[in-house]
Model the fold of this input.
Amino acid sequence: MTGAEILIKTSIESGVDVCFANFGTTELNLVSAQDSVPGIRSVLCLFEGVCSGAADGYARMLEKPAMTLLHLGPGLSNASANLHNARRAYSPMLSIIGEHALWHRQSDAPEVMDIETLARPVSDWIRLAKSPDTISHDTASAISSSMQGNSATLIVPQDVQWNESLNPLIESAKPHIEPVDPVNINEIARVLRGGGRTLMVLGPKSLRENGLKAAARIRTKTGCDLVSETFPARMERGLGIPFVDRIPYFPEPAFDFFSQYDSIILVGAKSPVAFFAYQGGRSNLLTESHNIYALGSRYQNLAQALEMLSDTVGARNQGFMAEPDSGSQLADSLPTGPLTAEKACMVLAALQPEGAIVVDESVTSGFAYYQAASCAPHHDWVPITGGAIGQGMPCAIGAAIACPDRPVINFQADGSAMYTLQALWTQAREELNITTLICSNKSYNILRIEMARSGQSKPGKAFKNLTNLDRPPIKWTQVGNGMGVPAVSVTTAENLSKELSRSLEEAGPHLIELVLSS
Amino acid sequence: MTGAEILIKTSIESGVDVCFANFGTTELNLVSAQDSVPGIRSVLCLFEGVCSGAADGYARMLEKPAMTLLHLGPGLSNASANLHNARRAYSPMLSIIGEHALWHRQSDAPEVMDIETLARPVSDWIRLAKSPDTISHDTASAISSSMQGNSATLIVPQDVQWNESLNPLIESAKPHIEPVDPVNINEIARVLRGGGRTLMVLGPKSLRENGLKAAARIRTKTGCDLVSETFPARMERGLGIPFVDRIPYFPEPAFDFFSQYDSIILVGAKSPVAFFAYQGGRSNLLTESHNIYALGSRYQNLAQALEMLSDTVGARNQGFMAEPDSGSQLADSLPTGPLTAEKACMVLAALQPEGAIVVDESVTSGFAYYQAASCAPHHDWVPITGGAIGQGMPCAIGAAIACPDRPVINFQADGSAMYTLQALWTQAREELNITTLICSNKSYNILRIEMARSGQSKPGKAFKNLTNLDRPPIKWTQVGNGMGVPAVSVTTAENLSKELSRSLEEAGPHLIELVLSS
Done:
């Protein structure tokens, strides 16, 4: 077998069954190997940021890696922004990067780049494959690391791909989850019983139905409060699932929020920090006055840890506050008239069906959505994690391929959408059930808010020019149709309701441009 | 003055007058400074790969840097593929990357990345600005480095932007060109007079009219041959300018080509290597049997070096071979019938006007263009240099802004165009005189050629799936119109001639989709 075939076979044996790819000459053998060793579905993306974003979406839904196949340093560069988002989501990522033959790497040929250095800021695990005799071990090691919620990058020179290993041993990777420590559970239970105002900060993987229900039981039993990280990888939400608010995005209200508490229990979450720095501000949202505890780590089953904690504090049969059941009210009172961002949020929350996956990169247009969607049917909410815009449309691809029987709705800001709009083509090609709602406010609105916050003198010509997307207006219906996604434009809440309902009934991708009034 | 204002003022004093930007919260002060210290034209690009590609195009035409303003690690990641192309073109590049405040960098906030490491593979010069008191020196140093044909990256934390320096000394950068060494000129002249078959390999900056004419006089006088690097940054071409062929792209004909020669004179060129590795191949196109000499370096005025060499070998008044004047013949015999890639090349070469800038990322569709365009009117040819596709459309923006009175024609492959198609929006916004010819062959055709070359068994399902762009077909007229660029589609050579002529007569950008028959 060739090294390329061994890599593919090892991946298949480890459960990898999808490859988001945009390859070049240096990955030719890795593609041929997908033909000689079948078992991986190859999905073509017309830009590598779509590959990595799609793999992130797939990983967030299935908690296992897809493969991304990328061409040399340029391919990795293009993938990196969404690899960063994936890292911040702790998504299992497996990036396979082709490389010039080992004997050609030192040639400084035109497309030579230092791939290992490029990979470092977006990878938790990096290796250069050296031989077909060791590539099965390399691949299995990459996948094992990936399965722990890491971004694993394996760089594979052409000669390692095309050379043969005579009797290759095919390894396979198995997921490894660290056990929960009962001693720590008892310690946290003591904190909860100990009085003082206590807050549990729910991190990745605790935000599933069973974890949230256990946390809610603990809340009712002990009087603690709950909060989620601002941008978690995925949260199960909707009617019947306890509502948990998020840490405020801007640091001032976040400081105020945390100042209410004596003790902070981090449930797999990192100690919270401000997203951006502001003059006279600080990074840490917690202070020396807080007692800080950790319930487990992200390498553990945190929902199980919460259930154990619930039992330990005697909350196993505890009822918990259900959110106000206003879902049907929402549907009865659909907004009307010229479409605003807030009305769009209400329409989406009211009409999104049971089991929806909502990939949310709506930025400022979506401010009202999180609250409203607590009354929507059971769904998954998948926001942007690392601040690298252009995540939503690719992520929707991965979610739709991971969960083909569930409707995917991408609630998407226009400025961010432009970053990876090539994703629409793959949505059409793969006939994915994705409805994209483009919030067309024709501006980088978040920057106008930041400008107002900064206290600087009023915006000048350069600032206005660099935040304004209305000249020319992007005609999203033409862009969507041009890439094979049926597209319509709506200017009223009624039409949004009508078009959203219709698109959810039809198979395949749809795009709805939401022309927003302010 | 704030650090941000000092940076902008230093840039203006050093002759920087254009900024290709996509900024975020961490660059707010740098944008405000462009309002308080006017003198820079800000150009909004809706993806950072467009910013860097545009700055590259600008630099190739004017041989001085534009500024690119990028947001943190994600912005730099997105810009990196075209920064790589720019490095391979030795374009003067000035990348200004915002960074979190120095006190916030260690917070590991969601958008924190290791920007310095990310920058290393795409930069020749990197610095983290530490204080407003030193930022003028930092900026001038970056621009000085840039002016030598380097990619300079200055990382500017927010607090360095917003803090003030009371009595700042504003430095300014001046271009520095290393003098030509007359001793070396004499040495090369001896080689040329010494017999044996001699080849001069023309590198960057020698491919201007005066350099090419000097080289052609030397060729006539001494009997040496001339060749250009395969992918130079820019070449002046057309009627009256000596024709120079390029080093063959594939290594086998390149080996054969060089094997004819005893002595190789590198005119600012690197020792030539194969673009990609192939089984049983090698990197170096030269062997131990070649005598290798260097006429100057890329830091020198190589056209001047060639003129000095021409004088030294007694060729000052030497005539030189003019290319066959078949320009008018080309125009008289415009091709007709269903459009093929070759016919497209002929139409373009026949109709491109005097002074055109042809940004060429036509890949396999453009095989016939280089030869044909030797008979076109005087023009600049600007190809992709580093193999990172998605260079053409952004590069055209920079060329059009650098040379507003010249028509820019972007001869563009469809697969590559998809990488940075956001460029069309900026072309429309800035009303640039760019005609984009999209060669729609609906495939990654180069990979089919490489597959055939590889000798592997016939292409399987994965290979076909990952090289085929025809399902769905990209409707480029809709994509273009959707971003504000008037667009038409042509299927015959006659219609291409008609639409190309028309678009060149009208101001502003145009897109023509060339539906190619094979």
Summary: Chain B touches chain A through 103 residues (CB under 8 Å). The longest helix of chain B spans residues 72-88. Chain B has 21 helices and 17 strands.
